[in-house]
Amino acid sequence: MGRAGSEERSGWLFILPFTVSMALFFVYAIVRTAYYSFTDFDLFKAPSFVGLSNYTALVSDELFLTALRNTIGFSLIVTTVQTALALALAVLVNHAVRARGLVRTVFYLPSIMSSAAMTLIFLWLFQRDGFMTAIVGVVLAYHRHILLFFVGIAAVQGALVLKARRRYDGVSIFDPFFLLVAAASALTLVVACALAGLLPVFDNDLRVSWLNTQQRFFFMPVTLWSVALMNIFTTVPTLMLLFLAGLQSIPNALYDAAEIDGANAFQRFRHITVPALRPVTFAVVTMSIIGTLQMFDQVAILGDAAPLASRVTLAYYVYENAFPAGASSRIGMASAAALVLGILTIAVVYVQKSVGVKERAE
Amino acid sequence: MLLRPARTLAAATMLLGLPALANETVRISGWGGSEVAIVNGLLTDVLAEKLAKEGITVKYEPVDGEFSQFIINGLSAGTAPDLFYVDIFWARSVFSAGQALPVTQDVSGFAANLVEAFTYEGKLYAIPKDFNTLAVHFNKDIFDDAGVAYPSDGDTWKTLQEKLVAVHEALPEVDGLCLVPEYARFGAFALSTGWTPFDSRGRTMLDQRFRRAFEFYTGLVKSGAAVLAADAGQSWAGGCLASERAAIAIEGAWIISALRDSAPNMNLGTVRMPKDLESGKRGNIVFTVGWTVNAASKVSKAAAKVAELLTSKEAQQWVLEQGLALPSRTGLADNSWLRGGRPEQMTSRVILEGLSDDHVMPYFFGKVGGSWMQPINAALNSVILGETDADTALASAQSALDRMLAN
C-alpha cells in the first residue's frame, strides 16, 4: 500500500510541470479567449458583454470569409502535395546506394533555414522579373524544343522496346539502356532542328506577378499558391525524415517474399510500403493539417509585398484584429476568429482521422 | 536610513537653499535605429544639466520592430514606459483608450496643424516632436546627362511627367520615378485636387477629383515616366534613387539619412511637390510623431517635464542643426541653418515649406486606421499592374470603403 501510494505520488509529481503549463497556457487561455469572444474589448476599457454579435460580425465580414476560404484551400493543397512529395523523396533517398548521407543532408537543408530567412529569399526569387519568372520564361521560349525532345524520346524508346520484345521476353518499357539511347537521339534531333532554324524561339518579355497580385488561380489567390510552393519546399524535408524512419522499420523479408511472388516495383510499393507506413502517414497528414491551417509567419513577413485579401489566412486575420494598423484592438473579434480556427482545426483533424488516413496499419 | 554621502548631500542642499533633489527616474521609449543617437545625444549633450537640476534621471528604452504593438501591449499590461512616442498614424488608439495624460504646458510655439493632429476630443495628448512632408528629390547628374531641365517648384503634374519621360528617352536604363502603389505617396496628388479623404458626413467619396489624380498616378508607368518600385527590385522610391535606377523620388526628409549611407556623393536637389494643373494647388501628407505621458505613470509630472525639455527650443535647434529631424516649433523656421546650401539643409527647407502647402492632411484615418488605405492601395496596384481598369478598380474600392465606414 505504502509503495503503491508513493508510486502514485511520484506519478503525479512527474506530470505536475506539464499539468501546470497546460492549465495555464491552454485551459486558462482558452477559457479567457472564449469569454472575450462574447465581449467588446479593446484591451483597456472593461469588456462589455455583446452576446453572439462578434460571431455574426465574422460571418458578414468579407475579409473573414476570404481568410476562411484561403486557409482551407491552402491547407488542402499543401497537405496533399507535401505528403506525396515527402513519401516519394523518402523512397528515393532510401534507395540511394551511393552517397546516401550526402543525399539526405542535401534534401534536409531547406528545413534548417529559419522561416523568416526563407521567406525573404523567396520574396527575391518571386520578383516580377526574378528567378521564378526566368524559369517560366525559358520554358515558354523553348516550349517547342522541350516538346520535341520528349516526343523524340517516347518515339525512339517505343521503337527500341517494341523491336527488342520481338526477340526477348520481359523487356521493361523504361529499360535504362534504351532510355539513354533515346535521350541522346532526341537531343540530337532537337539540336539539328534548332540549327536548321526549324524551331523558332518564342520571344517573350515575361512579367509574372507571383505575390503582388489580386489574380486567382482555381480556388486560391495566386499569392497563396506562391506561398504554398515556399511552404512545401521548407516542410517536405522534415516530413521526409519521418517517412524515412518508417521505411527503415519495414522488414526486408516482406519485399523479398513479394518479389518471389512476382510483384513488380509499383505493386510492392502499393501493397507493402504504403500500408506499412500508415501510422507515419497519419502523423504526417495530421501535423500538416494543423501546421497549414494555422499558417501565419510566411504571410506576415510578406507584409505589404502582397495585397491583404490575396494573402490573408485565419491566423493572420486574428492578428490583424488584435493589432489593427492605426486603430484600436478588436479583441472580441480576434478571440471569436481564434476560436473558429481552433474548432476548425479539431474538426478537420477528426474528419481526416475518420475518413482519411487511419492511425493504425491494416 | 540614508547612506552617509546622501545624508551629507541632503544637508548641503538644505543649507544652500536649493530645491531638494527628487531623484525620479523616468523611463522613456521611442524607436531604435538612428533615433537612439538623437535621443541619447539630446539627453547627454543638450539636456544633461537641466535634467540634473530637476533631479530627473532619464532611461531611454529604444524599441526595434513594431513599436505600436509594444506600446499597446505594455499599456494593457501596466509595464509601459512613463513617456513614449506616438505616431499620428496610431496615436488615436492610445488617446481614445484613456491611456495618455493631457498636455498642460504652453504649446503656442508649435505648428498649429501638428498640435491639431494630436488633439482628441478638444484636448491635446502629445507634444509634437518633429514632422515630415513629401517632396521631390532628384539626382542632378542624371538630369544633366539626359540634357533635361531640373524639376522645379513651379512644376505641375504634367511638366514633371514630361521631364521624367524625357529623361527615360535620353537614358533608357534610367526610369523617371519608382512608383509605389500606396496612398502614403499617391495621397499628396489626390489632395492637391481639393479632394478630401472624409467628407462632412465621415464618408469617403472617390469622386472625379480623386479619379483625375488616380488616372495620372497609375498612368505614369504606361507613359514611360515611372516604373513600379518592385519591378526595379526595390521596396521604396529612395532605393531606386540611391541606386541611380530612377531620376527622382517622392519621399520625406528621411531619404537624407538613407542616401547618406548608400549614395553619399549624390548631387541631390529637392523641390516641392508638383501642382495640379486644374486646381493650381499643391497637396501634401504630414507625418508626425509626438511625446505622450503614460496616464498610469507614477512620475507623470517628471515625465511631462522631460517631454517639455525634449521639445524645447534648445533641443529642437540641436536636432535641426544635426540634420536629424525637422522642428515642430514654428520659431525655428527661420533658423540660419535652414538657409545653408548643403543638400540636407535645402531638403529640410523644402520639407518645412511642405507643411504650408494648400491641401495638407495628417497621415491619419480616424477610427478605422490603416485599413482605410487598403481598398485604395489595392486599386492602385491592380491598375498599375494592368490587372483591371480604373472603372472597375475604383468601383470596387468605393464599395469596400462604403462597407468599412458604414460600421
Give a description of the structure.
The complex is a heterodimer of chains A (362) and B (407). By secondary structure, chain A is mainly α. Chain A folds into 3 domains: 2-53, no CATH class; 58-127 and 210-355, MetI-like fold, CATH 1.10.3720.10; 143-195, no CATH class. Helices cover 73% and strands 2% of the residues of chain A. Chain A has 16 helices and 4 strands. Chain A has helices at 2-36, 53-60, 62-95, 100-112, 115-125, 131-141, 143-167, 176-195, 222-248, 252-260, 265-276, 278-293, 297-302, 308-311, 314-322, 331-355, and strands spanning 39-40, 48-49, 216-217, 220-221. In chain A, strands 1-2 form a two-stranded antiparallel ribbon. In chain A, helix 2 crosses helix 16 and helix 4 (100-112) crosses helix 9 (222-248). Chain A starts with a helix and ends in a 7-residue tail after the last helix. With 407 residues, chain B is α/β, with parallel strands linked by helices. Chain B folds into 2 domains: 18-131 and 287-346, Periplasmic binding protein-like II (D-Maltodextrin-Binding Protein, domain 2), CATH 3.40.190; 135-272 and 365-406, Periplasmic binding protein-like II (D-Maltodextrin-Binding Protein, domain 2, 3-Layer(aba) Sandwich). Chain B contains 17 helices and 15 strands. In chain B, the strands form 3 sheets. In chain B, strands 1, 2, 3, 4, 7, 13, 14 and 15 form an 8-stranded mixed beta sheet that branches. In chain B, a hairpin with a 2-residue loop joins strand 5 (119-120) and strand 6. The A-B interface holds A 42-45, 62, 127-129, 207, 209, 212-215, 304-305, 307-309, 323-329 and B 66, 68-69, 72, 75-76, 89-90, 92-93, 96-99, 182, 228, 230-231, 233, 235, 364-365, 367-371, 374, 377-378, 381-382, 385, 387-388, 403. Chain A: Residues 68-352 form the ABC transmembrane type-1 domain. Chain A: Belongs to the binding-protein-dependent transport system permease family. Chain A: The chain crosses the membrane at residues 12-31, 72-93, 105-126, 146-165, 177-202, 222-245, 276-293, 331-351. Chain A: This is ABC transporter permease. Chain A: It is a multi-pass membrane protein. Chain B: InterPro entries: SBP (IPR006059).
